[in-house]
Amino acid sequence: LEMFSLVSGSRSSKTFKPKKNIPEGSHQYELLKHAEATLGSGNLRQAVMLPEGEDLNEWIAVNTVDFFNQINMLYGTITEFCTEASCPVMSAGPRYEYHWADGTNIKKPIKCSAPKYIDYLMTWVQDQLDDETLFPSKIGVPFPKNFMSVAKTILKRLFRVYAHIYHQHFDSVMRLQEEAHLNTSFKHFIFFVQEFNLIDRRELAPLQELIEKLGSKDR
Fold it and tell me: What positions does the entry give for Zn(2+) binding (predicted)?
């Protein structure tokens, strides 16, 4: 499982936001352990499939938390290169620019720098994950009816952080020798959202070539 534990050394503990922990001893923790074990087998297409007899919402919840933590760490290692000066707009290459709105605090999309946008985005995701009515951690507490649409919005937004890292900071990732980790994490993410049809193809356009490349190796 070595490839999934973050790069060793002092940088590895640097996350952008606090890590979101799944309570030990809970069923979700067991599911997370199952996910890690199947990832270790190296077959990512198989690893993302819903385990037999498990609840789809719960499986999506556990993996969403895990992707948040992975992106949190990946972005945490490059924050010093993603600044107001280097990234005055939140973009994924010249053709894609993102403006932030969360529908509650900021209703009308605002143009802001990438570090500001990613701060808004990760804080927003964190608030969703911490909301017990949306992401219940207690056994027997049902998921809300709108859970799937909430999860889709979270994953759509998390994708944008990968897209920004690939388009604007890949040279830094290479210098830190983290490209294998980034690629594995992103590939896992893409196979997961493809398996359950969670992100619209249009949203994936900024990394379409990479997605096709990653997928073709696993046919």
Answer: 82, 87, 164, 169
Residue 90's nearest CA partner among 201, 168, 206, 190 is 168
Q: How far is CA 134 from the centre of its chain?
A: 17
Backbone angles phi, psi at 90, to 5 degrees: -85, 110
CB atoms within 10 A of CB 207: 21
pLDDT in tens, 30-47: 998 888 888 777 788 889
Report yes or no: 65 and 22 within 8 Å, Cβ to Cβ. Answer: yes
Look up tokens 């249009």; give the residue: 202
Could you tell me which CATH number the domain at 27-216 has? 1.20.140.30
Question: In degrees rounded to 5, what are phi and psi of residue 40?
Answer: -60, -25
Q: What is the DSSP letter of 62?
A: H
Residue 50 backbone phi and psi in degrees, to 5: -65, 120
Q: What is the pLDDT of residues 44-64, one digit of tens each?
A: 888 999 999 999 999 999 999
Tell me the average pLDDT of the chain.
89
Q: Which helix (H) or strand (E) is 97 found in, with range?
A: strand 97-98
Q: Does 164 belong to an annotated binding site?
A: yes
Tokens 């087998």 belong to: 41
pLDDT in tens, 158-177: 999 999 999 999 999 999 99
- pLDDT of 218 over the 90 cut: no
* Dihedral angle over CA of 12, 14, 15, 20, nearest 10: 70
pTM of the model: 0.90
Instruction: Give CA–CA dist 160/124, Å, rounded.
Output: 14
Q: Residue 82 annotated as binding?
A: yes
Decide: helix, strand or coil at residue 3. Answer: helix
